[in-house]
Model the fold of this input.
Amino acid sequence: MDVHLYFSLIPEALIASNLPPEKFGQYYATGSGYKSKGQCLFFEISRDFRNEHFEIATAIERCRPTPSGTPKHSVYLSVYRVLEHLPIEALGKLYLTTSYGHTLGLERGELPEEGESCLHLYQDLVPVNSLVVSNLGPKTYYESVTVKPSKFIRFPGLFFVELELGELATDPANGKAETLPYPFVDHLRETLMTLKQPSGDKPGGKESKMVHRVHSLEFPYSMVKGGFHVGNSYDMAFYPMPSHRELKQRHDQWWRSANI
Done:
């Protein structure tokens, strides 16, 4: 039986499994009686990937079906400092699984150019789980905490997703926020107003500021803006999120599951 390598982002872990991606996502999100359940994201890793930090050959050897033929669901190789030891070229598809076990696979795309100046909301998932607002575009934001740190804080790599801000992205003081599903909108608005505004109006003194130091790893898939960013040192990759229209038309079951 095949052995797959998966890099889990909620929580950070490197896992070997006999399950193909869709079945692994279902198992990992809905689990068994003793496992907590919920949304999960994971990459499939190249089977040829090797790094002395991980005992991959041993894990593959242990990842065997039971005598009755039941696939081995998971063999954990690591639950700490996984991303910094994974080269970006080893990452395959990114899989998004809803808390109901429906899985959507995303292909890697072209890293987008920095767009028009506006404010951004970033959910960091690995190696930290912080919620951050910034006037920096995704690539510049990534560099500011990795290869070109603007402060003492520095990460070897980072996986993060940008979330929608609606009208708050251009007018944090007066923009409407009724459609945003976040339970902390008032705090979010106040934090955005402390940033140096891209328009130059009412400038603050910061380029990025923490909204929550330790934030829930789960987030609404419907609020993903653009896609998902992952980097290790100077290497960075982007996984674009399909539009709501495409998700409704081509992945209706997943979309409905994600919005229950």
In short: DSSP finds six helices and twelve strands in the chain. Residues 21-30 form the longest helix (10 residues). The chain has two domains: 4-106, 120-258. The mean pLDDT is 92.
